[in-house]
Amino acid sequence: MLAPVENRSVSPVFVGRRDELDLLEDALARAAAGEPQAFLIGGEAGVGKTRLVEEFTAVAARRGAVVALGGCVEIGADGLPFAPFSTALRALRRALPDELTAAAAGQEAELARLLPEMGETRPGRHDEEGMARLFELTARLLERVTADRTVVLALEDLHWADASTRHLLSYLLRTLRTGRLVVLATYRADDIHRRHPLRPLLAELDRLRTLRRLELGRLTREETGRQIAGILAEEPDPVQVDDIFERSDGNAFFVEELAVAAHEGCCTGLTDSLRDLLLVRVEALPETAQRVTRIVAEGGATVEYQLLEAVARLGEDELITALRAAVDANLLLATPEGDGYRFRHSLVREAVGDDLLPGERSRLHRRYAEALEARPALVPAEERVMRLASHWYHAHEPAKALPAVLAASVEARSRSAYSEQLRLLERAMELWDAAPEEVRSRLRPVDHTEAYPPCGCDPATTPLRYLDLMAEAAVAGRFCGERERALKITKRALRLLADEDDPLRSAWFWVQRSRLVRSLGRGSGREELARAQDLVRGLPPSEVHAQVLVRAANWSMIHAPGPEAYDDAERAVAYARMVGARETELDARQVLGALKVDAGAIEAGLAEMYEVKERALAEDVTSVALSVYINLPSELEAVGRSRDAVTLLEEGVAFAERHGLNDTKAWVCGNLAESLFSLGRWQESEAASAAVADRVGQGVSAQGIHATRRAELSLVRGDFADVQRQLTLAQNLFGAHERAAQHHLPLTRIAVALALAEDRPTDARAHLERALEPGFPPGAQRYAWPLLITGAEAGPDVLAALREAARSVAAPAPVWQAHASWLRAELLRAEGRAGPDDWCEVVTAFERLERPYDLARTRHRLAEALLAAGDEDRDRATELLRLAHAVAGHLGARPLTDTVTSLAQRARIPLIPKTSADPAGPADTLGLTSRERDVLRLVCAGRTNRQIAAALFISPKTASVHVSNILAKLGVSGRGEAAALAHRLGVFPPERGERALA
User: Fold this and answer.
1) pLDDT higher than threshold 60 for residue 758
2) CA-to-CA distance for 26 and 212, rounded, in angstroms?
């Protein structure tokens, strides 16, 4: 159990927050039952947020909960990355060492980015999922720790939080679903101006149903009186209560200050400024103590004693005397750990800091920086670099600040705090021109950047350039999601490079711009890649050249596969090998393998991709392994090997979970949902998408993929309203610029099918014509064949266009050869020329594949053709319909079930063999056969012999014979009399949509 929570208030009574405390205590009980709880507590500075947290955490501790407090640390105007989470996890580690160690097992190197005591961080290549990976592992850690123990995680002063802390908190609040956990976060509402970085987070969190907001208001006059009575330990004079209430306006902290000041006789001559009120107690201190409080004010939220001693430059006795005076005046408090000091309330610290002269402030920061440089052990190791950079920057010493800020940016990157890395790099760019040339000349790219490979120079001997900082900042912006800032930096770099002869650097920046433009939905990124290719064309092999080629090949693989993409991938492999860029080589090889499969060299391409997977895993090249876990199963699915794809995808899901890679998991689960759908495992397909539905960090393309999967499932299940919702969502996520076949062709097919299902053939033809007009790119057969088959029902006007489009679609694998046969049969059927032999070929092809839904659909078509041909193959048609009906029912494919049932009813085929005789009805008394009853029903509906023949799959002549037999058995002379007799006897109640003859 942790030590008792520190109380920083001078008031012995707790007033005015009973309702809020009751709500928090109820949340504690819910959390103890396994339902995580989350609260945002807002209010102006001094209104009592901290006091409420103190009271609640004391209650929680008494009830056996573990309390972990973490405060956002302000150093000057800077926050330490992940500071509140690091502090809270450190507290959890002290309270529950064994539980935390067990929960973190196997992920210590990653979690050390938050809590360095857990081990050494793992060096390696950073990527866009680095931050999401850390967040997911942190969420999982908390879920495990709180599985059997109630924990209260309290994060204070969120208005000072660094961007990484804000992002991590947002992630936790949106993803935690299990565990006995209460999360509290406090912030100053009066500090949240329109441009405050916390404001977007508050708006985002407001939409979460799992989070509650508490806005603390000011005290009433009656509550103010009770607070004053508690402070003075006697009933106050009502006049004094009125005066303090009027001046404090019910702010709890100011009530305390005014009450204490009045009690000590310090109110005489006070101005109306509450800021001046806060300084009264400081100004009453001895001069040395005032000086020490000013030093503490600029040191950050907490200042270690030894650091304070080094900066104050006082004798030990003199310093302790000064600190004692400040503590006795209730201005400073010793930290719970007993190794430093902080102000009782941040408002006092801010008032003291604001009272400093500009030169005085920079001098104090310089002293802090000098002390840290001389004695690094004065502060915790994980904070030293960041604090040193902040102090040198606010000391206005560019020569010292630039190297310190760059070192801090490297530290931020190592902790996956990419938002802070970006801020620090922007600060370094700000300092660049002000720093002396001799300082800049000693800086090296190899020490401070890793964003892009050497562009024709040795990074160990070549001085760091301003463009190097821009490159690192652009990548950091992409990693932390600040893509707009990253794009601006990239554009600015390209403007600077326009006047330089540096094609490799320019090409590298064009590749970054391509990635950013595409991720922001501003275009496909192709134009930017083309610029990069033009710049490296004809240059000797280099890592940049190889990267340009592999990015271009990857783009073409998705959007326009063909000989050019194949050539780019082959050259990327060769160039990467020449320059020893192993990761780029493996990446290029997996792209090359996919292109081989799409071109028809299936076995060679799959073998290449399997080998890349094994090498990437063996050499711990995580980024390539992730790509292969997405692309290899996709290619397996593309050639009809869905079962193999599922096996690999399940392995990929485990790999992504083990590494905390939610974006990758979203893509893997999207492909898994597709392959499970093909295999007829629809419930599992739905579950695969649901597995990532409540996780964040997914890119828009991954979200679009899952929306497409949901639309597909809703379509075959007959939920057409949801189809339209998911279709619209997917189209919005992909955007108008995204024309990759893997995205827009499935959406077009679903749109055509939905229009046909809703009897909107004109809309269906319009969707189809827009898709057919540009033609299908090479390798698009997995999306083109199903679209063409669906379009065959759109009417005779599109049949010629469908035949023409089919000529350009390859069928390199049995699954697509089966689809090609299916399309031929559908087109013949639309023209009234399809016979049983045409559909028998299709069914035979699908019986060799694991595609139960497609097999059921084609069996229905064959049964239809057999019945239309006459009664000779009625038994075979019956068997086919029963098989199709059983599969459709098992899958939950309601539209197919209805279609099969309708055909069986019209053909008088029982889908389930009768086990007992039906009771006799009016029709039975007339002596009619089963077929004659069917004919009489249609006669009553006013159908002609030709219409009866078409409905019952018999010839018009046979229909005429049945009608003559019916008239004879009923003893009537015409069809009208037969219908009237049937109506009078109640043989066939009129069905909706049918009309009886008069």
Assistant:
1) yes
2) 13
